[in-house]
Amino acid sequence: MKTLIILLGQTRSASLTGAGFQKHVIDAFSREGEVDVALCRCAGYEEPDDFFRSIAKYCWEFPEPAAWSDVYRATARELGGEAPACTLAEPRRPSRRGPPY
Fold first, then answer.
1. Share of the chain above pLDDT 70, in %
2. If you average pLDDT over residues 17-31, what whole number do you get?
3. Other beta carbons less than 10 A from residue 37's beta carbon
4. 21 Cβ neighbours under 8 A, 6+ residues apart
5. Helices (DSSP H) in 14-94: which residue ranges?
6. Strand, helix or coil for residue 26
7. Quick one: CA torsion of 59, 15, 25, 34, rounded to 10 degrees?
8. What b-and-e string marks burial along 39-53, b requiring 16 or more CB atoms within 10 Å of the CB?
9. How far apart are CA 50 and CA 55, in angstroms?
């Protein structure tokens, strides 16, 4: 069986996440057969020794949209459906009291 793993989004801190991704995702699927990786991310973001770019067989880069919600709604319409009726929450601001633990 051949598997295509698609990473959609920014792949920041690959130096911290690459080994875990390799072990828990790529190696796990490799036991079932051949694995290819596709990377779909915003253009203009490059990291030295970019692990994810180095393993990607396919790479699509695009300009970062001003509002992701517009992109999701347009995609849903294009595919003949409707985007869920929801609003995106404002980013949470860090608490001055410190972490919740």
1. 80
2. 91
3. 21
4. 51, 52
5. 14-21, 27-30, 51-55, 68-78
6. helix
7. 50
8. bebeeeeeeeebbbb
9. 9
- The residue-averaged pLDDT of 15-41 equals 90
Higher pLDDT residue, 2 or 92?
A: 2
Residues 26 and 20: their CA atoms lie apart, in Å, by: 9
User: Encoding tokens for residue 56?
Assistant: 């990607």
Is 36 exposed, middle or buried (CB count within 10 Å of its CB: 0-12, 13-18, 19+)?
A: middle
pLDDT at 11: 80
Distances (CA, A) of 28 to 22, 38, 50: 8, 17, 21
Residue 49's closest CA among 9, 12, 14? 14
Predicted confidence (pLDDT) per residue in 38-68, tens digit: 998 888 777 778 899 899 999 988 888 888 7
